[in-house]
């Protein structure tokens, strides 16, 4: 498989993803202009999505892949996203927001990229076209490679999901601390003071990180790291076919509904529209700078010590690929959890629309990553 064929396969997968996202946004926009969707209906669906459907999605997507083994054996897939998040936060907040005066949602757009649906779609396309054939070990099968790569992507997405919904509302919005003065403890004496101190600590330092999505993620982690519970929820047939399936069905409603509502918000004209400079900043960071740093870092560390982590070409490829790409479509949900206004939500919808229009430019990153890994392992 040549570099050009890898580039073409990745480009086509990116176009498919972009068209899918933009089409659903378009349906939402059309329905809002025809008053098929009203303001109250839009608000109701949006709240239902972020408080019910999204937590269900996180439980069923994260739970099956969060295990103690995955944490210990594939630690780079958990550590690398943390480092990328810190780097992109520094770029977005210090350069974008403080130096250039960009709005806070641009910081979030730079920081939280699409680490789930887009990479999974590209893996499927790359496998179909044969672009991943060069990464198949001797005696291996393409199906096993794609399955392993998909599992790695989901591990990366776990870190992003937790960070996005715990830190994102604070970065993007006006979620202020609600602690006011003293509260009257239910108990007297030492026990009462302890109760008050615990409540004060929670209000000041913990509550601002807690929301429906974070609770869903924590439930998924709790289920995943306890093998008997994980088996009961995801493998025990009566449970899997009933309650687990119901939660799965509810979770699957989230992606399309969230995009549909975002499309409806495009009818609103924000007071400060998304400027071309905002999109240039996102593009240069997430499609050029961060991919260069990711690919170079993995290559250098592997050259310096080939056993720095588990030798696996698919693992290296995912570490290089996942830092690239457009903002996550769940940023609108993050913004709502952060309490941002309708005006800013309309701006975020515009940002996502333009971001997915330029998504095919991720193709060079994926093509280069395949060739670098191929050279590293002599495949």
Automatic annotation (TrEMBL):
GO cellular component terms given for this protein: endoplasmic reticulum; membrane
Superkingdom of the source species: Eukaryota
Entry annotated with the keyword DNA damage: no
Alphabetical UniProt keywords: Membrane, Transmembrane, Transmembrane helix
Chief place of localization: membrane
Listed GO biological process terms: transmembrane transport
Location(s) in or outside the cell: Membrane
Residue intervals passing through the bilayer: 12-31, 74-92, 209-233, 278-301, 313-333, 353-373
InterPro entries: Mem_transp_PIN-like
Membrane topology: Multi-pass membrane protein
PANTHER family (alphabetical): AUXIN EFFLUX TRANSPORTER FAMILY PROTEIN (EUROFUNG)
Identification of the protein by name: Auxin efflux carrier
Organism: Yarrowia lipolytica (Candida lipolytica)
